[in-house]
Amino acid sequence: MLIQDKKIAIVGGGPGGLTLARLLQLKGADVKVYERDYTKDVRVQGATLDLHEESGLEALRRAGLIAAFYANHRPNAGRLRILDKQANIHLDDHTLENAYAEDRPEIDRAPLRTILLESLQPDTVIWNSQFASMQLQEDGWQLHFKNGTAAYADIVIAADGANSRLRPYITSIQPIYSGITIVEGNVYDAEKNAPVLWQLVNGGKLFAFGDKQSLILSAKGEGSISFYTGCLVEENWVEQSGIDFNNKQQVFAWFKEAFGSWDPIWQELFDSNDIWFIPRPQYHFPLDQHWTALPNLTMLGDAAHRMPPYAGEGVNMAMQDAFELAECLTTTAFENSQTAIAHFEKQMLKRASAVTQFTLDNTALLHSNDAIAKMLAIMSGQ
């Protein structure tokens, strides 16, 4: 096995990094995961995740965790309502016997993370380890973290997300702005703090469209609603807007202006002070990106192929990357680690190119003048 007696460092403890750690440990590898969160108990933000048969679910099968997934998934979380900006319902998945996304079961991010963490050997994850820098040392890397610690690894895998600090050690290829910026938010205890929208989401998802804008809401099992506003704005809008996104009143003032033609029902998202926001300009990498493979460093997930969230592919791509990379590193088919990594990256980039194009097409569709008509056509099989 190529990684026999080698130390492997995975930087980033998201689903992709944790899945890879689990799969490598099943093959007897010496793995550490370096995660910037202070502890495993940090609040996990973001919408529910729908796992796809050939990627996310396949990764969990290979990891021996599919039973744990189904013990923690939310069967109706994928049921969808499509609304216009005046809150008129155009499609109600809850009234159908078979949901549109019934083959893509949903799970909240926190339970998925717990499943993966609990599958790892004790002390695999080194918390409070935000990557700072690294340099070549012998045939591997010496990693340095912002907490002042350091660690050596023979092979390093960057799983540190869309704004990866390790990616520049592999390639200088820069991301391309998609034209869309999201303001992500989370309303806690939503049944009390946003009761009308909580009932409207009905334990599932809600997509609303109008004026080339989108508003996506997801109910989470712990009682919160996550939401994403999608707007066509300039790339530097976040800086130029002057909005302090830690200030609810400033964000609310922006929302009332930007979504001024929308029904006031949507403003209920801002009724509570138990709320959290972050702006996220949406980028993607060039469809033809490529680089020369290294023998001791590679990347997966958003670090390798970030893209907007409008196809539900992000976590699935990362988990598929994990099982394909684990296979390459633990098989006897390659003569050395550089050949194995080169094979993984070639297949990963080909797959990512196709998924990125599909995602960009979806992004444009959902922010077009006739988004609802197009969505209904797609969901009716046209």
Automatic annotation (TrEMBL):
Q: Give yes or no: UniProt keyword Nucleotide-binding.
A: yes
UniProt GO BP = response to antibiotic
Q: Which residues form the FAD-binding domain?
A: 7-171, 298-359
* Major site of localization recorded for this protein: cytoplasm
Q: Please give the cofactor(s) recorded in the UniProt entry for this protein.
A: FAD
Q: Which reaction does it catalyse?
A: a tetracycline + NADPH + O2 + H(+) = an 11a-hydroxytetracycline + NADP(+) + H2O
Give the CC-aspect GO terms: cytoplasm
Q: Could you tell me the superkingdom of the organism this chain comes from?
A: Bacteria
UniProt keyword Lyase present: no
Q: How does it assemble?
A: Monomer.
Protein name in the entry: Flavin-dependent monooxygenase
What is the protein's species of origin?
Flavisolibacter tropicus
